[in-house]
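Record copied across here:
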Amino acid sequence: MRIPLSWLAESVELPAGTTPEQVHADLVRVGFEEESIRRFDASGPIVVGEVLSREPEEHSNGKTVNWCQVRVAPEGQRAADGGEDVRGVVCGAHNFDVGDRVVVTLPGAVLPGDFRIAARKTYGHVSDGMIASARELALGDDHDGIIVLSRWGIDAEPGANALELLGMADTAVEINVTPDRGYAFSVRGVAREYAHSTGAVFRDPAEAVAPVPASGFDVTIDDAAPIRGRVGASGFVTRVVRGIDATRPTPAWMVSRLQLAGVRALSLPVDIGNYVMLGLGQPLHAYDLGKVSGGLRVRRAAEGETLVTLDGAERKLHVEDLVIADDSGAIGLAGVMGGESTKTDDATTDVLVEAATFDSVSIARSARRHKLPSEASKRFERGVDPLVARAAAQRAVELLVELGGGTVDELGSELVAPWAPEAVRFELSRVNGLLGTDYRDDEIRSALEMIGCELVEAGDGVLEATAPSWRADLTRPADLVEEAARIIGYDRIPSVLPTAPAGRGLTREQRLRRRAANVSTAWGLTEVQSYPFVSRAQLDRFGAGSEPVDGAAAPVHAIRLANPLDGEAPFLRRSLLAGLVTAAQRNVSRGLTDLALVEFGAVFDPEHVRLGTDTVPPLGERPSDAVLAELDGSIPKQPGRAAGLFVGAAVAKQAGEPARAWDWADALDAARVVAGAVSAELVVRQGAHRAFHPGRTAELLVLVDGSLEPVGVAGELAPETAEAVHLPGRVAAFELDLERLIEVAAREPEVAQLSTYPAATQDLTLVVDRAIPAAEVLDAVIAGATASGLLEGATIVDDYRGAGLGDDEKALTFALRFRAEDRTLTAEEASEAKLAGVAAASERFGAKLRD
């Protein structure tokens, strides 16, 4: 909200010399956040001039200009810029004549847009200044030419300061108003708060108006079946003014105040409505009475009904929209924007003024539904004083009579919204108990009375507080505590650090997640964090993360946001790899080509998402427990993942050693490091994934209750994938379901007793079909040899394919290590255990010993 200081001073005493910075500081003291200071962007010698002569001259370009002599200072005195009192000025406008008083910008003046005025030669003359228009002074979009002061209601002598006469010497302070304090969207409300802060005398502008009763105009509020238990309108005051001249210019003082307040001047009836709204906080609407058919009816929109609003757009109305209608149909979207069919224009003579009280929730929903925020809806949805409507309507009538030349008609309506607030029982001790302060009881009472509450003693330190009509937000004891703190002073709330309660520290899951991040970064990876929003192409390219895909990759189902930040990326991610690729692209494009990135974050499983935007509960009422449970149940699962991406060189080129690129083995090692950090052991076997190289992809598994469960993938991206995402060379990557790894990992690592007896090692070479994964053959050998209780370790040491074997065969060599805890093994015992492994591999895969 922007508040011109001259306007503020009409309702509260501002000490002489008060600066905008001081006003800001005083308003901050009562809970408003300062935003900025607003001034007119015009300075220098800008004065009143009297046109002494005007000689039209037609030039070769077809344009006719006026060569004028203008008095810019009293006769015989120096002008504001130190020059002569009469100046020659070239002017292209024609809406003035000899004897008119105009605004002259002399050399040295600076106009909005950093337009600097200087004497310059043009059209054969030296123009020693410029006669200004409203547009050039940023006072409006007047297309009729320069400002003739008499038409603006200003009578001043040549040389007078035009900025002061036009109200352009004024300054406005801008504050941020929180949603619960809608009363501060008016000069009236801010002036009252300034008085609370400084103790200055407040003069309520609403009390300075004496409403005159009116009747005879038919107004009906037809909301017999209120929507969601809320009545759309509770008050509707109308007044009629006849015989106005709508073409009269809005006076300069009003234009300047509207401009400083951030509202553009349009026409006299509209400007008066905006001026009263900014002053008293009550939105108004002016109808051309001659365009209204019959009386007005406040009702809900009919199915399929449409309305052309003042912005020229045709809007399809919703059955929950509250509309103003006459005999012809809807003529306004209540509390949001009026209709085109009954708007005032230059031909308007009779004006119907409306000051209504609408339900805040109904107006807020309509404004959002039609994406049509307005100054009126901003106030209605935050709450408007229901008792100020009569004063606001009367003030608008007075201004239309004074400035528009109209006469008051007795026609109107007097349906004033009822105000019957419930008293809030309030314990005085609650204030210090909640705030930790030492406020006295009399200070608390004084603070509540200052904001307008009526207090009744209920005994034993209990008050019954009734809020004023402009503070509908005060409904709970906590609200009154907040007001007491705000008025008495936040500076008296002590800064005391609370004593931390005893706790057990981080949970197991939190400790393991942190350990995984610490270990992976210590291993050499750089942790990054990416946005969770992805495009359809990224979804289909990287899938849902760790799941292998056989054959053609089907489109990935994902959660689509109703209102995404980026229309190109409207989905929530199913994999961390898309974000890592984007981070790598950004770094590579900036010359950082050697990368080892890791990310720990959540992905979003759409399986449980059932609610759409149409089933979201309405505002203004608490959903039932069943609805809340349904909402909780609809929140998607968000499992934690870990993923890494490797681009460029793992080892940089150096003297005596060539560069080595990252490859699938590095990705697999990194995945094992992350799993090991949470005490989980990965099982690796040949895998497949839509984004990975078909021959360089490992499926990562863990053993759960005797069976293997997939938890991730590691390897190299397919060359076409790397090319599609514009990453050079080989790109290695891994992704793990970290949450599942933490669930299945041993809570306490098993610590084996070291045997003091020597190990017996034996090699084993088996011939199997080439299609059989080596890891599965190793699993079979381990399973068979483990039965002896002597196997300590087994690894693959060779994979041979060539001479001496069939085209569809390969020879796998394993190194087996056996050890007993209580004795030195014999060669026969080790061989017997090895042959048990051979038997298991032979039974499962038809493996045979190689000669």
Observations:
- The mean pLDDT is 90.
